[in-house]
Design a protein that fits this description.
binds manganese (II) ion, 14 strands, 43% helix, 13 helices, Phosphatase 2c, domain 1, six-stranded antiparallel β-sheet, Multidrug-efflux Transporter Regulator, Chain: A, Domain 2, single chain, 3 domains, alpha+beta, globular
């Protein structure tokens, strides 16, 4: 097929020749050929699709480095780059919106307090999920956004596990926050997530899947914990690590009854057996007062069965950026054999 001049290709792709030259320099869209004598760039009409994709991604505001990722990654991973970017934009916009609202009232003389006295809190977070080194698929789902942090560990044969964990997280994302009392919002979130999983299982002729759920809903001053199963939530406060969830496993029940010691628990053959899962039992709920400097960790058992509390604490106290912390935790779980899917969310409460 005949090659197009940069002018003709620019018209067809609705990009300017200047933009095309920039994309070439950045390695985003190389011309099919550069005329050796004139130096003119020539494009193949088949490159139009990629040119349009670059233009759309630019219009979205995706940074150039990430556009490069989108072009190089397989489709599903490329979609994740865009999804993650958009979550980040929404989160930043929400923070700015709250700040703008504060400034409007402050400048109108309605609020005499300066921001440092009022000290509104913000959360900064990162999320990571990984297949691990042994499992063939990743049935975990993890999510972190401005109003919701969540980890769900799906189980069951075939796609049942990942469908269950995905349904739980989707149901939570639809819950509107922070309208109304946080406890009401939490019950509503738990109810919806539970029924989403039950609906899914009802549609399955041989239901054998399910999911855990450990989620934090953020109201701006409090965190609402909704938890069922053996994923966990931890709080790092003043360099001390507290586990704030209870495992709903058969063996934890035996420890609680004094039939088993904590030490025996880690190696018990039935330690994975869940006593309750989403949709079959009532999730635990608890309110946490947010304090600047607090750091939360949510994780699936693929992390906490491989790394002991001392290791978790040491990573959480020494790695400052949430993004680096989740990366390090997953890396350590995989260095420890990566026996299971591993997911974690790290969130910092900060004074704005
Ligand atoms: Mn697991």
């Amino acid at each position: 097929m005949a090659l197009l001049t940069i002018g003709a290709f620019a018209r067809a792709s609705r990009l300017s020749p200047k933009a095309l030259r920039l994309y070439d320099e950045l390695g985003l869209l190389r011309p099919a050929r550069v005329d050796p004598s004139s130096g003119y760039r020539l494009y193949d009409p088949e490159q139009l699709e990629q040119a349009r994709l670059v233009a759309w991604l630019r219009r979205l505001g995706l940074p150039l480095a990430r556009i490069k990722d989108v072009l190089e990654l397989p489709e599903a991973a490329a979609a994740d780059v865009v999804r993650d970017y958009w979550h980040q934009v929404e989160a930043e916009t929400e923070v700015r919106r709250d700040l703008a609202a504060f400034l409007v009232s402050y400048l109108s003389g309605e609020d005499a307090e300066m921001p440092e006295n009022q000290s509104p809190l913000a959360i900064r977070y990162a999320v990571r999920t990984d297949r691990g080194l042994v499992r063939e698929t990743n049935q975990d789902r993890a999510y972190a956004g401005q109003r919701l942090l969540a980890v769900a560990d799906g189980y069951g044969s075939g796609a049942a596990g990942s469908a269950a964990s995905a349904a739980a997280i989707e149901a939570l994302r639809e819950v509107d926050l922070p309208a109304g009392d946080l406890l009401n919002v939490m019950s509503e979130a738990a109810r919806r997530a539970g029924s989403a999983v039950r609906d899914l299982m009802a549609a399955d002729p041989e239901p054998d899947g399910g999911t855990t759920l450990t989620a934090l809903l953020w109201s701006g001053s409090q965190l609402g914990l909704v938890h069922i199963g053996d994923s966990r939530a931890y709080l790092l406060r003043d360099d001390e690590l507290f586990r704030i969830t209870h495992d709903h496993t058969v063996v934890q029940g035996m420890v609680d009854e004094g039939k088993l010691t904590e030490d025996e628990l880690a190696t018990h053959p039935q330690r994975m057996l869940l006593l309750q899962a989403l949709g079959t039992g009532d999730p635990d709920m608890r309110l946490q007062d947010a304090r600047a400097g607090d750091r939360y960790l949510l994780c699936s058992d693929g992390l906490h069965r491989v790394l002991d509390d001392d290791t978790l604490r040491s990573v959480l106290t020494t790695v400052a950026e949430p993004e680096d912390a989740v990366g390090r935790l997953v890396e350590l779980a995989n260095e420890g054999g990566g026996p299971d899917n591993v997911s974690c969310v790290v969130a910092d409460i900060e004074a704005r």
